[in-house]
Amino acid sequence: MTPLPRFAAVVLAGGRAARLGGQPKPQLDVGGRTMLATVVDAARDADPVVVVGPPQPVPEGVVLVREVPPGGGPVPALAAGLAAVGDAEVVAVLAADLPFLTRDLVTALRRRLVDDGVLVVDDTGRDQLLLGVWRTAALRAAVRDPRPHTPLRTVLSELSVSRHRPAALPGRPAPWTDCDTPADLARARAAPGRE
């Protein structure tokens, strides 16, 4: 099998978490560790791993940066993260609230990268914009004008994107499961058998 190119990871860990009462969502525990720790572990082969968001605990060796302006949304956050990845040709872009993300899925996305990017499509057919792997140069060009509160979908719409529909294991939450509400968090915490 052909070796994969070096990659970096940008984990978006900002947002107000208004539906969770303003709690720092990446730091919430699911399965005995924070959701952020799970996502960073899934990207542990990346160099560097950059977390974008407010000051918060991050695993050792992880770079923490802040978007400008703070709270400006995913486009300024992505631009700030990309500024910190150096010369990596490929970058995984991940949300910090994916408690069932695995290294295998990140690797599968890296193997499927043939266009500007490849992202996960969930079982409803919805693109998961914060669960993908991209060519760094193409992504930097897309966010070169990181206006606050611009929808991420808008800036990515000009890129050539492939989609990957990973299979969810029977009886297990899908790897794209995120935690936006108290009900989502309760379901994630009650889910059987984490790896």
Automatic annotation (TrEMBL):
Domain MobA-like NTP transferase: 9-158
Superkingdom in the source lineage: Bacteria
Keyword Transferase found: yes
Record key words, sorted: Transferase
InterPro entries: MobA-like_NTP_Trfase, Nucleotide-diphossugar_trans
Region (Disordered): 164-195
MF (Gene Ontology): nucleotidyltransferase activity
UniProt name for this protein: Molybdopterin-guanine dinucleotide synthase
